[in-house]
Design a protein that fits this description.
5-stranded parallel beta sheet, 544 residues, Rossmann fold, 26% strand, alpha/beta, 10-stranded mixed beta sheet
Length: 544
């Protein structure tokens, strides 16, 4: 079934039950309202700590968005971009676009004006929904956006070149539009993270979205009484498709507009959250706060929290070992995926395989995986090769880019660009991005392996390893190390700690600085290589 059918089913079966809660930790806790109460005071500059909507209101809002678009001439197959921070309006707008038969095009809220302009053009967007945080960026490109594009402002004090989303939606019908949406219809265009170049538009079908919802519910045994805490940005397939598990089961979810350890624990405690998806930095921040005593388990109601899972990046085994010391009852899973595979889960560890922490796991529900060499021949034993996946969530193509599509889609297999290997039990271990492999003196170094080793040091908050040019060896491994706030660490200590690594894997340069990560938690290695190569590196060292 198309993903929109799940929302309509939930509205019929669980109409009066809460579907979504939005919490903004920056606001006062007493400012709590339902969405219906919130609408009565729109437009207004008031911001609330807590808002909620039921499944019936969620579906009603989506219908209003769909009918609003249809009344303005948007037809099946046209593209509607969303540029919003996480908020309660996000998902009803997304589903309203889909109900209109259009394609949803979520945009990264960190995009510059230039990148936004590029993505609108690359996706052929006919509509743009955007929030107040992006007024300056949209003003910069307003003259470039094609005149036929509808621009809706989701906020107060609508700019003159945009239309007021709240007013237009509230005046539209709440009845489901009579648009036939099928599994094989195009449903969304997501953009790649851009860590290996300018973002590419990824075309997905409705059946891929629906499959990801079913897979998420199966992988994490999501039940009707579960409550999912959603923290990462909704524009990304990771957060969205993990929430799809809640959509599939009709269970409640909380959108948290903040990621401090205190905010996370308060949301879990106050809302009764049972499933929490974290990025590595946030999990590390929680452990640091617990270690220092700033955060105390006994101050919160956490017994119902059953599952902590991590995705978007390799997970240091030392982090999970540390986590289990505080939460021995927690189930744990890690999920591997790409926007090209409709988000997380094409490979997953499995909650029953916690002893295999460090692996990304085995093929997910409905998926196949293989590891191949440079000639596309499957590797044997524990050789390193490129990970390829095949399954029902595979993208159709990079939109309007057949050359880029042909580079990664071969005979129905997606070549991920990630280097991996099997262990003796057939579990897949991610070694590194193909483009991040460091070749030093003829030896291949895989930064992820060195980063995982460094993260076992109790004084290290975060670590990234990149290749820097070297006249003699071609490249050397440089470790950027972020030390915990209350700790001190010297280069000599790091070098001594690394004596347990094979000599050729030891970092040749140690740099103490903040590790740059993107909004989905991935280390931004192109940015790090730019900062620390050549003259830029010398400048930073001189300043320090």
């Amino acid at each position: 079934m198309p993903i929109t059918d799940l929302l309509e089913r939930n509205a019929k079966l669980y109409g009066d039950e809460v579907a979504l809660v939005e919490i903004d930790p920056a606001m006062r806790e007493e400012q709590r309202v339902t969405w219906r109460e919130y609408e009565l005071i729109q437009p207004t500059s008031t911001v609330f700590y807590r808002r909620e909507i039921t499944w019936s209101v969620f579906d009603e809002k989506a219908n209003r968005v769909a009918n609003m678009l249809i009344s303005r001439g948007i037809k099946k197959g046209q593209k509607c971009a969303i540029l919003l921070m996480n908020c309660l309006e996000w998902l009803p707008i997304y589903f309203g676009i889909l109900k209109a038969g259009a394609l949803a095009v979520p945009l990264n809220f960190r995009f510059t004006a230039e990148e936004i302009d590029y993505c609108l053009d690359a996706s052929d967007a006919d509509v743009l929904f955007y929030g107040p945080e992006f007024i300056g960026r949209i003003e910069d490109i307003a003259g470039k956006i094609k005149s036929s594009t509808l621009i809706y402002f989701v906020g107060d004090t609508c700019p003159p070149y945009a239309e007021d989303y709240y007013r237009q939606a509230s005046n539209s019908s709440s009845t489901a539009p009579k648009i036939l949406v099928e599994d094989t219809d195009e449903g969304a265009i997501y953009f790649s993270s851009g860590t290996t170049g300018f973002p590419k538009p990824i075309l997905l079908l409705h059946q891929a979205l629906s499959q990801s919802a079913r897979m998420e519910a199966i992988h994490h045994e999501t039940k009707k009484d579960d409550c999912f805490l959603c923290i990462p940005p909704l524009y990304h397939t990771g957060a969205k498709m993990h929430w799809f598990g809640s959509l599939y089961t009709g269970s409640r979810a909380v959108i948290l507009k903040g990621n401090t350890p205190e905010a996370i624990f308060e949301a879990v405690s106050n809302e009764g959250c049972t499933i929490v998806w974290l990025l590595v930095p946030w999990a590390q921040d929680i452990l640091t706060a617990l270690d220092s005593g700033r955060l105390k388990l006994e101050d919160y109601k956490l017994d119902q929290w059953r599952l902590m899972h991590i995705g978007a990046q390799p997970v240091p085994p030392s982090l999970i070992k540390h986590w289990k010391q505080y939460f021995p009852h927690h189930q744990y899973d890690t999920n591997y995926g790409l926007s090209e595979s409709t988000g997380p889960g094409c490979v997953h560890l499995g909650m029953e395989n916690v002893e295999k922490v460090g692996a990304i796991g085995v093929p997910g529900f409905g998926w196949k995986a293989k590891i191949v060499d440079e000639n596309d021949v499957p590797v044997t034993g524990q050789e390193v090769g490129e990970l390829c996946v095949k399954g029902p969530g595979l993208m159709v193509c990079y939109y309007k880019n057949p050359e880029a599509t042909a580079e990664v889609l071969k005979d129905g297999w997606l070549h991920t660009g990630d280097m991996a290997m099997y262990d003796e039990d057939g579990f897949i271990f991610l070694v590194d991005r193909k483009k991040d492999v460091i070749i030093t003196g003829g030896e291949n170094l895989y930064p992820v392996q060195i980063e995982s080793f460094l993260m076992a040091n109790p004084k290290i908050q975060d670590a990234a390893v990149i290749g820097l040019p070297d006249d003699r060896l071609g490249e050397i491994a440089a470790a950027i190390i972020q030390v915990k706030d209350d700790m001190e660490l010297t280069e000599e200590e790091v070098n001594h700690f690394c004596l347990d690594l094979p000599r050729y894997k030891r970092p040749r340069k140690i740099i103490f600085d903040k590790v740059i990560r993107n909004a989905t938690g991935k280390i931004d290695k192109p940015a790090l290589r730019h900062i620390y190569s050549g003259e830029r590196l010398v400048e930073r060292q001189n300043r320090s």
